[in-house]
Amino acid sequence: MKPALRIHDQIELLRSRGMTIDDENKAIAFLYSNNYYRLNIYFHKFMDVPDHYPGNVCFSQIIDVYKNDRWLRNKILSILEPIEINTRTKISHYLALNYGSDAFYHAEIFKDIRKYEEIFNNFSDEINWNSNDPVIIHHQRKYSGLFPIWVVIEFFSFNTLSKFYKNLLEKDKKIISKEMYGANDYLFGQWLHVLSVQRNICAHYGYLFRREYPIRPIMAKSFDWDSSQNNHLFAQLLVMRRLSDRRLWQNFIYLISDREKREQSFKLQDYGFPSDWRSYLI
């Protein structure tokens, strides 16, 4: 394994690779509070060849893009949260009214029994891990450990929620997606998966700067976007716009525009934005 390096040696390593340390005290302070390994992806994004930086790369640039990512992650989470909560609410409400409050225990309303059992087992594990939760204690005492669908769905991760929706019967998925967003059920299921991955990236402090996503959203025709360009964050924002409350979305776009004007380091092309991005997102 690689030997551990002191902060001073980390800086010397970057300097030996051609990076300009324009404010050494600031760089030291930043590395003391931000793991070198966490920053490593940003270091590599600025290299022209492996282990070498062109002459115009400064450590302050790393700090700037890192802070931009942190800001953008928080703003994206503020958009994803209402989409996720709305989806949980609508799915559980539909299933409860059409199959009963115990819908989760009706295996026949799911397409793939093995996938259903996997989700069921994951939920059971979640209940065991959170056995001291007052909600769980209440249902175990009063209802012999059975949980209504509107409680079950709140214990799902976003990723599990997307799997749960995709495993519903086709007729139910069509009604849910149409009533919620006027969307095609197949597209909506794929979008949920894509957004659940993005949510995990943001929630776990993953990088967004110049990121290429292997899981890409399928583009609806109404997006009028070249699907060959959908491996960057911008394509996911097209989906978020489609599923977001208009007022919340307009505020998000205002914040993006304002930061672009105020922060010279916040370059939207680093996130896959085209020059005419407003015509797609507003």
Indicate the topology:
Elements lengths: L6 H10 L7 H10 L2 H10 L13 H41 L13 H17 L4 H9 L6 H4 L5 H9 L3 H12 L3 H19 L29 H11 L2 H17 L15 H4 L1
Helix pairs in contact: 4-10, 4-12, 8-10
Question: How would you describe this structure to a colleague?
Answer:
The structure is a single chain. The protein is an all-alpha fold and 282 residues long. It folds into 2 domains: 1-13 and 22-57, no CATH class; 72-281, no CATH class. It is 61% helix and 0% strand. It contains 13 helices and no strands. It has helices spanning 7-16, 24-33, 36-45, 59-99, 113-129, 134-142, 149-152, 158-166, 170-181, 185-203, 233-243, 246-262, 278-281. The longest helix has 41 residues, at 59-99. It starts with 6 loop residues before the first helix and ends with a helix.
